[in-house]
């Protein structure tokens, strides 16, 4: 009996020792294994992060490109508003965009996720920049909608606006502007009430807005002369023409070929003398051109 129970104790102890050993080895192995997995996972995450950072940089460049285009859109907006005498959007409003400053709600400092060797990224600044340009784009969208509404409401009036050059860019040079200049005949300073475009004889001259021909005749120092009434107080004048292609009373549209450049009347060389009158007063034609004239 006694021998048997001692034997039992030895067996129990032995079994326990074996189980403990197996348990320890298993534990050690598992720990080692999960550590290796952890390192792999970490490497994976770090390379993912590098790719994401690179993508963010690319996006940032695209945003800068977009910002450049935005400036063009804004200056175009200002130009149109000037032309159609619409009030300008104040620059302060553009600085904030519409809907106030929404930045700073989320403090998203994600830089702790960046792998080593990757430069600092200001995610907040990045987000705010995006928000800002998003608001600015919205503002411009609304502005252009407002402009379109204003123009379509009064389309006839804008069709009457002498908004283009009377000669083609490639065929003429603006030789004399609006204002004081030395008169080539009397050699004295004299006010020049329009634009002189130097061009070869025969170069086409175009009506700069819709209207009705008020005069088409030989008229003193102007030589071959055309006058167009555009309504709304606008009149344009075309002088020293070689040929006139429209008659008095004729209805014409903007861009229509009305005559050709010459040197009739009091003129030293082939050129077009062009005037824009508003409410019976000469004005600077340069204030009306909406097309770009490149000399
Ligand atoms: Zn002139």
Provide structural commentary.
The chain is of the alpha+beta class and 295 residues long. It has two domains: 152 residues, no CATH class; 119 residues, Glucose Permease (Domain IIA). Helix content is 42%, strand content 22%. The chain contains four helices and twelve strands, in the order ααααββββββββββββ. Strands 1, 4, 5, 6, 7, 8, 9, 10, 11 and 12 form a ten-stranded antiparallel sheet that branches. A two-stranded antiparallel ribbon has the order 2-3. A hairpin with a 2-residue loop joins strand 7 and strand 8. The longest helix is centred in the N-terminal third of the chain and has 82 residues. About 3% of the residues have low confidence.
Number of helices: 4
Overall strand count: 12
- Unreliable residue stretches: 99-107
Structural class of the secondary structure composition? alpha+beta
Largest sheet: 10 strands, antiparallel
């Amino acid at each position: 009996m006694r021998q048997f129970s001692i034997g039992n104790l030895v067996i129990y102890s032995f079994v326990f020792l074996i189980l403990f050993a197996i348990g320890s080895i298993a534990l050690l192995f598992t720990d080692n294994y999960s550590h290796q997995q952890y390192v792999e996972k970490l490497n994976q995450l770090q390379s993912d992060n590098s790719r994401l950072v690179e993508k963010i940089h690319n996006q940032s460049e695209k945003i800068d490109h977009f910002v450049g285009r935005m400036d063009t859109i804004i200056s175009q907006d200002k130009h149109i508003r000037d032309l159609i005498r619409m009030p300008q959007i104040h620059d302060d409003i553009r600085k904030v965009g519409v809907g106030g400053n929404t930045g700073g709600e989320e403090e998203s400092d994600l830089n702790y996720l960046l792998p080593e060797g990757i430069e600092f990224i200001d995610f907040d600044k990045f987000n705010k920049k995006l928000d800002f340009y998003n608001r600015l784009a919205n503002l411009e969208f609304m502005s252009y909608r407002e402009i379109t509404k204003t123009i379509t409401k009064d389309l006839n009036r804008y069709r009457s606006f002498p908004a283009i050059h009377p000669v083609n860019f490639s065929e003429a040079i603006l030789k004399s502007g609006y204002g004081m200049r030395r008169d080539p005949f009397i050699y004295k300073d004299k006010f020049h009430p329009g634009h002189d475009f130097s061009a070869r004889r025969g170069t086409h001259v175009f009506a700069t807005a819709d209207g009705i021909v008020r005069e088409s005749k030989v008229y003193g120092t102007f030589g071959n002369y055309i006058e167009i009434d555009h309504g709304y107080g606008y009149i344009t004048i075309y002088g020293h023409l070689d040929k006139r292609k429209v008659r008095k009373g004729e209805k014409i549209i903007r861009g229509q070929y009305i005559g050709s450049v010459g040197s009739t009347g009091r003129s030293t060389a082939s050129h077009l003398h062009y005037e824009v009158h508003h409410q019976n007063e000469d004005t600077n034609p340069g204030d009306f051109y909406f097309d770009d004239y490149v000399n």
